[in-house]
Amino acid sequence: MRVLKGSSNPRLSDSIASELGADTVLADIRRFPDGEIYARVLEPLDGEDVVIVQSTYPDHNAMEMFILSQLVSDLGAGSVWGVVPYFGYARQDRVFNEGESFTARTMARHLQMSLDHVICVNLHKETILDHFTDVKSRVNLSVMGDIGAFLKEMGVDFVLSPDAGAVDYAREAASEAGVPFDHLEKRRLDGETVSMKPKNLDVDGRNVAIVDDIIATGGTILRAQETLREQGAEKVYACCAHGLFTGGGIERLTPHLDGLFSSDTIENPTTRISAGRVIARYIEDTVG
Fold first, then answer.
1. Which fold has domain 2-143+275-287?
2. Which residues, at least 6 apart from 186, have a Cβ–Cβ distance to it below 8 Å?
3. What DSSP letter does each residue of 153-207 carry, written as one string?
4. 51 - beta bridge partners?
5. Is the pTM value of this prediction over 0.85?
6. How far, in Å, CA of 207 to CA of 155, rounded?
7. Active site includes 152?
8. Strand 117-121 versus strand 50-53 pairing type
9. 240 CB neighbour count, 10 Å cutoff
10. In terms of Cα–Cα distance, which of 229, 236, 267 is closest to 253?
11. Are residues 46 and 53 in contact, defined by beta-carbon separation less than 8 angstroms?
12. Which among 4, 62, 156, 240 has the fewest CB atoms less than 10 Å away?
């Protein structure tokens, strides 16, 4: 088995290769001045099982995954594994208004054209997997256990999700950290503004970590940390699987937190946790 490193996740690709004890594929992947992608594999792949690691966010990364998966298939690879650390358009997982694009489904249908196996990480909605209908295996893995282990080392003694919809993430991280968990009650006012309903939490004097699958603008985290400070939390951290940090999210959040952390599904300055272990273990277990 070989690992082909797309340009979106070089650190995670190396982690997966190391965990698998696999070599990386020698390739030349670059962009022309007009933004188009050039891809060339520089060694034979006949009969080799190949793991392509490439997110589909932003759009140019999705195009790179389409190109790489078709290229590897054309070169005669045995089975082609697509590791999609962050699945772009995951939040467009349904049609709300007549005439809208069901873009998460569209993305899945295009991805599966040249893939035998699909691995996603902490999909915003696991039902997205249902749209991968022509692959041998599909899975949504979670990095929350590794986040929990990291938070335990940080001395966190309480884990919180920003709303009830994310409480399973808090439960998983807290279980690994060996600490209690709870959730806040959130009401979204618009795309960037949220309000928190009053709720008494047992956080006085504690080191609290807010965990979620995605942090984008950071508006939810800001309101959550305010609530925790008001109730006496000693330290407040925020940790997520996917650190989008749109619109200057890192700069916006950092002054208000005792630590901001994310996994390598989207590599950025806050990356401290790797999804490589859980991905490699799944591949090994599936291959047998």
1. Rossmann fold (3.40.50)
2. 162, 163, 194, 195, 196, 197, 220, 223, 224
3. HTT--EEEESSGGGHHHHHHHHHHHT--EEE-EEEE-SSS-EEEE----S-TT-E
4. 3, 81
5. yes
6. 7
7. no
8. unpaired
9. 29
10. 236
11. no
12. 62
The whole-angstrom separation of Cα 167 and Cα 169 is: 5
Note down pLDDT in tens along the chain; length 288 residues. 999 999 999 999 999 999 999 999 999 999 999 999 999 999 999 999 999 999 999 999 999 999 999 999 999 999 999 999 999 999 898 889 999 999 999 999 999 999 999 999 999 999 999 999 999 999 999 999 999 999 999 999 999 999 999 999 999 999 999 999 999 987 765 656 667 766 889 999 999 999 999 999 999 999 999 999 999 999 999 999 999 999 999 999 999 999 999 999 999 999 999 999 999 999 999 997
- Asked if 50 and 23 count as a contact pair (C-beta separation under 8 A), the reply is no
Pick the CATH number of 144-264 from 3.40.50.2020, 3.30.1300.10, 2.40.40.10, 3.40.50.1110: 3.40.50.2020
Catalytic member of 186, 197, 199, 235: 186
Give the whole-angstrom CA distance, residue 104 versus residue 89: 5
Amino acid at site 11: R
Beta strands 158-161 and 207-215 are: parallel
Instruction: Give, as one character, the DSSP assignment of residue 256.
Output: G
> How far is 198 from 186, CA to CA, in rounded Å?
10
The token pair that represents 186 in the structure block: 């959130």
C-alpha distances in Å from residue 134, one per residue of 112, 117, 285: 7, 9, 21
* Burial label, 21 (beta-carbon count in 10 A; 0-12, 13-18, 19+): exposed
